[in-house]
């Protein structure tokens, strides 16, 4: 009998040797699925908890591969901040693998940040993969509109307060201060982009409807006619014609997509390609929400005619 | 006298006839007045009701408007940009939290969710088709990589996956597969359908334990839990095919538990007990002499240098002829991609080694069999270079003993992969095999097409 279990016991013994008492966690752990939610949560927590990101900064959340380290991250978390519009649906198998029932969807320890946000571009009619890697619940990039932050921050603070009720007044005070700062910054950003109001933008991915709404810019076209699928030649020909007709001269190219299509469109139209971070941290020096928006607004203001 | 009396009655009759219409009219007018009064009262009551309702709705609207930061209407062109819409601080209504009693209440296994009639579990279909080109000799002898399916196009693996949450504490997955299986020694083949996976996972056991029970692909080695359509190459590495058969240990029935250890890096340990239904390695098929499998999987994030996974596995069980077979495995996988920007090129290096100590029955002259212990080993190594999201090329090297007879084989297999999207993939692979003992040299070319419809598990490291 002992002989029978000898081999099976090897891994158990190996792991036992590696067992070390985990460092005592003084602070609760919060995990945000996406970098924009991480950036907002960091401002609200203000050092009262450890806020970690389930992805890497600069990693495209649409093309995602589950890594065991993420399972570990979720296993040890007390609160999960998720997008709520299925951009981070990959978090579900991670949570299931982690054995942390607190973070299963529907638990009070899970925040759906989009709750209450006026969602744009909700697809209608039959939705299947012929539309590409479509988001059935609508466009999930709502944090790019600063006017959504009162709702998003309220959702996050509610979650933080459920997990750390003794710190609820502190979180609310942080939120008030954060929103005041956002209000002031938003006024400045609007002023910077005011001369370009109504200008049409082209982007590689459909990342900017909320940003365009916030700053009264227009969508001139999107290179990806269906998310996650390389654009067809017909679509690109139509886009180039539209850009020439409407005099759209700026392409927002999200930093994690290949640049060949944008470079081609720029060659054909004479447009400028701006490599921009779709989320905070996707370009060095933009992890902070305000620095991220500064980068977007300043780059655009310089590039727009 | 009688005449006067008669006249009086006639007068009364005439007077009655004269006055009766007037009385009736008066009564009718009085009724109408009353009716009008009632209608007026009803209208007043209705007006009050509507006014109250309007007041309530107005107050509710004001409350709702105060709770959300309504986006400002776009300003007319040329308007002053200095007045952005106010950022209000009101929160949306808090999400309802289930009470302990609600959580404890038995739930339906599934439900239709209201008017949208959304069935609350996931459905996915994956198809994997292979074309195998090889020599006539290999076809005749049926000793190719896909034995009995040489020089054929066949559905290797078509699966229907149903998965979802059972209740707040458990999830379940069921997987049906269909595949082209050779029928005996001839060229005949038939599509066979079978239940390949049906298991429940308990998510909330004490001490952070997670447990799976039912029919499953147990945690053993690196590739055992990977479905056919998700393998890194067209075919399973030779060592796994020789030691466990074409489908590896993927239809075991039993129970396994796994834990994430409280270490600074990822360590998952799993331990399972199964019938032992794998005909190649553990065919005893009885829980009285169970197949015991265990695995320790480690993962290290190496920062900008990538990620490394190392797994150590052990398993012991009885073969179909009641001899013990003990197998140990060591696997490693390394991946690197640029930490920021476009995440390509992606470089993958991986390998897995298997060692087995197996008892083989030897019949002696008296009809009594004795046990001969045979040690065998094998491994594979591969590297893959994804230079874009769509294109990749790789090379795999195989070396393995035969687990039940003398002889060994080695093979070299370069391959090219094209993925037009996340859900569609094509591969072409050339494989040259050579060996010693009963193994003959062979050259094979495989073409593979795979697709996914509906839900499919996210790709794992």
Major sheet size, sense and barrel closure of chain B: 16 strands, antiparallel, barrel
- Number of β-strand runs of chain B: 18
Mean pLDDT of chain A: 91
Shape descriptor of chain A: globular
Q: How many DSSP helices of chain B?
A: 4
- What is the distance, rounded to the nearest whole angstrom, between the alpha carbons of the first and last residues of chain A? 81 Å
Radius of gyration of chain B from the CA trace? 40 Å
Largest interface by Cβ-Cβ < 8 Å: A-B, 89 and 87 residues
Strand order of the largest sheet of chain A: 2-1-3-4
How would you portray this structure in words?
- The complex is a heterodimer of chains A (305) and B (461).
- The longest helix of chain A is centred in the middle third of the chain and has 26 residues, at 168-193.
- In chain A, helix 4 crosses helix 5 (91-98) and helix 6 (149-163) runs antiparallel to helix 7 (168-193).
- Chain A has helices spanning 2-6, 9-18, 35-45, 68-75, 91-98, 149-163, 168-193, 209-214, 233-246, 260-269, 289-303, and strands spanning 29-32, 50-53, 79-82, 110-112, 200-203, 218-222, 250-254, 272-276.
- The termini of chain A are far apart.
- Chain A contains eleven helices and eight strands.
- Chain A has 305 residues and is of the alpha/beta class.
- Chain B is α+β, with helices and mostly antiparallel strands and 461 residues long.
- Chain B contains four helices and 18 strands.
- Chain B has helices spanning 2-67, 100-104, 136-141, 238-244, and strands at residues 112-113, 118-119, 122-133, 152-167, 170-182, 189-202, 210-216, 252-260, 266-274, 291-301, 307-318, 324-336, 346-363, 369-386, 391-401, 408-421, 424-436, 442-454.
- In chain B, the strands form two sheets. Chain B has a 16-stranded antiparallel β-barrel with strand order 3-4-5-6-7-8-9-10-11-12-13-14-15-16-17-18. In chain B, strands 1-2 form a two-stranded antiparallel sheet.
- Chain B is elongated, with a radius of gyration of 40 Å.
- The model of chain B is unreliable at 69-85 and 106-117 (pLDDT under 50).
- Chains A and B meet through helix 1, helix 2, helix 4, helix 5 and helix 6 of A and strand 8, strand 9, strand 10, strand 11 and strand 12 of B.
């Amino acid at each position: 009998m002992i002989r029978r279990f000898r081999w099976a016991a090897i891994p158990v013994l190996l792991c036992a040797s590696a067992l070390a008492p985990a460092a005592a966690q003084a602070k609760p752990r919060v995990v945000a699925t996406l970098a924009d939610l991480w950036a907002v949560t960091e401002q609200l927590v203000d050092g009262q908890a450890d806020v970690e990101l389930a992805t890497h900064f600069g990693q495209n959340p649409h093309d995602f591969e589950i890594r065991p380290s993420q399972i570990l991250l979720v296993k040890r978390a007390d609160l999960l901040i998720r997008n709520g519009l299925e951009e981070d649906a990959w978090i579900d198998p991670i949570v299931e693998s982690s054995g942390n029932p607190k973070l299963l969807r529907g638990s009070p320890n899970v925040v759906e940040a989009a709750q209450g946000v006026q969602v744009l571009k909700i697809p209608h009619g039959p939705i299947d993969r012929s539309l590409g890697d479509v988001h059935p619940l609508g466009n999930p990039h709502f944090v790019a509109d600063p006017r959504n932050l009162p709702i998003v921050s309220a959702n996050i603070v509610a979650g933080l307060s459920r997990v750390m009720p003794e710190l609820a007044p502190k979180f609310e005070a942080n939120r008030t201060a954060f929103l005041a700062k956002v209000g002031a910054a938003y006024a400045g950003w609007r002023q910077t982009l005011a001369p370009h109001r109504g200008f049409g933008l082209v982007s590689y991915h459909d990342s900017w409807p909320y940003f365009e709404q916030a700053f009264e810019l227009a969508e001139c076209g999107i290179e990806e006619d269906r998310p996650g699928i390389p654009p067809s030649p017909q679509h690109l020909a139509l886009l180039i014609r539209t850009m020439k007709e409407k005099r759209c001269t700026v392409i927002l190219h999200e930093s994690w997509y290949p640049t060949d299509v944008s470079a081609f469109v720029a060659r054909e139209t004479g447009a400028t390609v701006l490599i921009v971070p779709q989320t905070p941290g996707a370009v060095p020096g933009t992890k902070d929400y305000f620095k991220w928006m500064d980068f977007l607004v300043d780059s655009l203001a310089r590039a727009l005619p | 006298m009688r005449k006067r009396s008669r006249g009086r009655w006639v007068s009364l009759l005439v007077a009655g006839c004269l006055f009766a219409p007037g009385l009736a009219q008066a009564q009718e007018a009085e009724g109408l007045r009353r009716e009008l009064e009632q209608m007026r009262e009803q209208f007043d009551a209705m007006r009050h009701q509507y006014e109250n309702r309007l007041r309530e709705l107005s107050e509710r609207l004001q409350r709702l408007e105060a709770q959300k930061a309504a986006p400002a209407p776009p300003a007319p062109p040329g308007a002053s940009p200095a007045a952005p819409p106010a950022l209000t601080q009101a929160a949306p209504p808090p999400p309802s939290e289930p009470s302990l009693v609600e959580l404890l209440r038995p739930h339906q296994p599934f439900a239709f969710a209201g008017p949208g009639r959304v069935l609350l579990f996931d459905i996915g279909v994956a198809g994997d088709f292979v074309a195998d080109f090889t020599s006539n000799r290999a076809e005749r002898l049926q000793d190719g990589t896909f034995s009995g399916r040489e020089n054929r196009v066949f559905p290797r693996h078509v699966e229907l996956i149903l998965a979802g949450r059972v209740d707040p504490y458990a999830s379940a997955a069921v997987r049906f597969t269909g595949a082209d299986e050779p029928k005996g020694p001839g060229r005949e083949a038939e599509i066979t359908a079978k239940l390949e996976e049906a298991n429940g996972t308990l998510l909330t056991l004490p001490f952070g334990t997670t447990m799976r029970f039912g029919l499953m692909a147990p945690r053993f080695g690196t590739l055992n839990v990977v479905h056919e359509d998700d393998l890194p190459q067209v075919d399973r590495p030779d060592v796994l095919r020789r030691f466990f058969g074409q489908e590896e240990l993927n239809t075991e029935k039993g129970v396994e538990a796994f834990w994430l250890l409280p270490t600074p890096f990822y360590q998952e340990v799993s331990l399972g007990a199964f019938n032992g239904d794998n005909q190649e390695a553990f065919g005893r098929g009885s829980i009285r002499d169970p197949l015991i499998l265990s695995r320790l999987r480690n993962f290290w994030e190496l920062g900008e240098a990538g990620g490394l996974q190392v797994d150590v596995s052990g398993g012991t069980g009885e073969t179909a002829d009641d001899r013990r077979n003990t197998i140990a495995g060591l696997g490693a996988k390394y991946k690197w991609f640029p930490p920021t920007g476009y995440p390509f090129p992606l470089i993958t290096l991986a390998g897995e080694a298997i060692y087995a100590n197996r008892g083989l029955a030897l019949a002696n002259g008296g009809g009594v069999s004795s046990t001969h212990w045979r040690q065998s080993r094998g491994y594979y190594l591969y590297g893959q270079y994804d230079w874009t999201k769509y294109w990749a090329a790789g090379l795999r090297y195989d070396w393995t003993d035969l687990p039940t007879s003398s002889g060994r084989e080695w093979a070299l297999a370069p391959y090219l992969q094209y993925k037009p999207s996340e859900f569609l993939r094509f591969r072409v692979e050339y494989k040259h095999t050579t060996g010693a003992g009963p193994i003959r040299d062979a050259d094979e070319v495989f073409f593979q097409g795979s697709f996914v419809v509906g839900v499919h598990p996210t790709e794992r490291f």
